[in-house]
Automatic annotation (TrEMBL):
Membrane-crossing residue ranges in chain numbering: 29-47, 67-85
GO biological process, one term: mitochondrial respirasome assembly
Superkingdom, natural source: Eukaryota
PANTHER family, A to Z: HIG1 DOMAIN FAMILY MEMBER 1B, HYPOXIA-INDUCBILE GENE 1 HIG1 -RELATED
Organism expressing this protein natively: Sapajus apella
Domain (HIG1) ranges: 1-94
Protein name: HIG1 domain family member 1B
InterPro entries with a match to the protein in the record: Hypoxia_induced_domain (IPR007667), RCF1 (IPR050355)
């Protein structure tokens, strides 16, 4: 009976967090855009926490979460539309080349 040793990765072969982030950025460039948008919105809303007026803390935090999630969903939608359009253009170019 042979043991499957593929599940264990030695520390020398393991990617660092920076390498993983750079690889993900090359694979899908809108991931850092969504992450950055989320962080910017969250930082801005936390900065505005002092001047929230009579708004309850829970309502302010819910609005912060919704705005940050909207940035991430927007980046996902942009990536989807970009992928669909690029695939459509490639398919049209292939169809035109076959004729």
């Amino acid at each position: 009976m042979s043991a499957n040793r593929r599940w264990w990765v030695s520390p020398e072969d393991e990617d660092t967090v920076c390498k993983k982030l750079l690889r993900k950025t090359r694979e899908s460039p809108l991931v850092p855009v969504g992450l950055g948008g989320c962080l910017v919105v969250a930082a801005y809303r936390i900065y505005r926490l002092r001047s929230r007026g009579s708004t309850k803390m829970s309502i302010h935090l819910i609005h912060t979460r919704v705005a940050a999630q909207a940035c991430v969903v927007g980046a996902i939608m942009l990536g989807t539309v970009y992928t669909m359009c690029s695939d459509y253009v490639k398919r049209m170019a292939q169809d035109a080349g076959e004729k």
